[in-house]
């Protein structure tokens, strides 16, 4: 009897400042990989741009970042952009965003399948990220320990890297991650592709071409609204990243927020 | 009005384009930005010239498909276009000949713009004269990756006089990345060093390794190649069932055309 697959949705959180072909590749690679395990059926992908209150240097307005992601994903039949996170009044912790989306996905699934669903085949939501993401867990004050546990223990990570061993090493060097390594999926893109939003912004500031690094429609949008200039890159220059401030103030809360 | 004049440049890329990828298209953009940044050049056109089937490279699929995929990829570009001349030749054509052909076509087109004279004979003579007298204000440069530059060193791959013609009479724009050292390669070759002023090295700070080999491999394995090449090209590939294990075996036991032609010939 053929094994039934767990329906899986991939969520990517980030600045998407701007979205690039490389971001969209992450979804494609992750989907192929999770399918090939034989255990999952990827049924959706969500791009969730961070809110303006994140305070990262060079971050342009969320409404633009969402619009660009929409343009980029127009031709995709399974990945969509969601603006819930970007519309929250304050920066939202990644796990809070995940809980929100998981709640929606579960509700939708129960509605379409009825109440007979086998709990083994409940849909799952995993966080899709790049290799450098695992290293951010080490940055003091950026993550709460209980959030990391919920993220990798309860939800799970799909981490796309370019063939280097750094992600495995990051897992190995952290007791928490190592304990949950069965829930961290490593996907390799053997093609070295360092196209990053940072490089794209750099090229735009210098009047250089970014064609074929992101969709034409997004490039047009950028030029029409004159985004990504020397001034835009200076935004938030002296600000402290919001998570570092917010999490320093709060006492540790339980899972049942 | 500035004292110095700006040289018009046409970039020509030869290769298999099997299939064309976003990386190929990026090369043109990088080259144009680099040349125009010097203030000496204005890049007016880009030409992609897919190699003919007679090249006999392993896994090379029919030229008609490679031409159409390239045409689809260039649709969104207002300055880069595909040219079928090379692929339509019955035998494999040396790159120097392709360069020569396109340069002559360029000159002829410029002549048509310059002259009021419509007498065919006089025009033909002028074209022949200009073949030996390179114009200062118009250049055709060969656009390539570091691997092509380094292939100049592979025995029997290139005729020395062809290399001399390309870098001596025309020019080379070489896109390279952090892990290769084209300057060292140029330094170690007397021929290249002699014409180093005509060799423009464009450093690609952001490594973009989307090779056609990788794309073909992914396609064979049923993996997604989305966002590595234009959607229209992916659609074409699926529609025509290109790039399978069978197609990759084509020419597996055949010798590459240049090696076949030059092996045994005395070195110049």
Automatic annotation (TrEMBL), chain A:
InterPro entries: Cyt_trans-like (IPR004821), Euk_NMN_adenylyltrnsfrase (IPR051182), NadD/NMNAT (IPR005248), NMNAT_euk (IPR045094), Rossmann-like_a/b/a_fold (IPR014729). Its EC number is 2.7.7.1, 2.7.7.18. It catalyses: beta-nicotinamide D-ribonucleotide + ATP + H(+) = diphosphate + NAD(+); nicotinate beta-D-ribonucleotide + ATP + H(+) = deamido-NAD(+) + diphosphate. Its main location: mitochondrion. Coiled coil: none annotated. It is found in: Mitochondrion. Its cofactor is Mg(2+). Residues 11-202 form the Cytidyltransferase-like domain. Keywords: ATP-binding, Mitochondrion, NAD, Nucleotide-binding, Nucleotidyltransferase, Pyridine nucleotide biosynthesis, Transferase. Pathway: Cofactor biosynthesis; NAD(+) biosynthesis; deamido-NAD(+) from nicotinate D-ribonucleotide: step 1/1; Cofactor biosynthesis; NAD(+) biosynthesis; NAD(+) from nicotinamide D-ribonucleotide: step 1/1. GO terms for biological process: NAD+ biosynthetic process. GO terms for cellular component: mitochondrial matrix. GO terms for molecular function: ATP binding; nicotinamide-nucleotide adenylyltransferase activity; nicotinate-nucleotide adenylyltransferase activity. Catalyzes the formation of NAD(+) from nicotinamide mononucleotide (NMN) and ATP. Can also use the deamidated form; nicotinic acid mononucleotide (NaMN) as substrate with the same efficiency. Can use triazofurin monophosphate (TrMP) as substrate. Can also use GTP and ITP as nucleotide donors. Also catalyzes the reverse reaction, i.e. the pyrophosphorolytic cleavage of NAD(+). For the pyrophosphorolytic activity, can use NAD(+), NADH, NaAD, nicotinic acid adenine dinucleotide phosphate (NHD), nicotinamide guanine dinucleotide (NGD) as substrates. Belongs to the eukaryotic NMN adenylyltransferase family. Homotetramer. This is Nicotinamide-nucleotide adenylyltransferase.
From TrEMBL, chain B:
Keywords: ATP-binding, Magnesium, NAD, Nucleotide-binding, Nucleotidyltransferase, Nucleus, Phosphoprotein, Pyridine nucleotide biosynthesis, Transferase, Zinc. One of its GO terms (molecular function) is ATP binding. SUPFAM superfamilies: Nucleotidylyl transferase. One of its GO terms (biological process) is NAD+ biosynthetic process. Pathway: Cofactor biosynthesis; NAD(+) biosynthesis; NAD(+) from nicotinamide D-ribonucleotide: step 1/1; Cofactor biosynthesis; NAD(+) biosynthesis; deamido-NAD(+) from nicotinate D-ribonucleotide: step 1/1. Its cofactor is Mg(2+); Zn(2+). Residues 12-217 form the Cytidyltransferase-like domain. Signal peptide: none annotated. Its EC number is 2.7.7.1, 2.7.7.18. It is an enzyme of class 2 (transferase). Pfam families: CTP_transf_like. It catalyses: beta-nicotinamide D-ribonucleotide + ATP + H(+) = diphosphate + NAD(+); nicotinate beta-D-ribonucleotide + ATP + H(+) = deamido-NAD(+) + diphosphate. It is found in: Nucleus. GO terms for cellular component: nucleus. Homohexamer. Interacts with ADPRT/PARP1. Belongs to the eukaryotic NMN adenylyltransferase family. This is Nicotinamide-nucleotide adenylyltransferase.
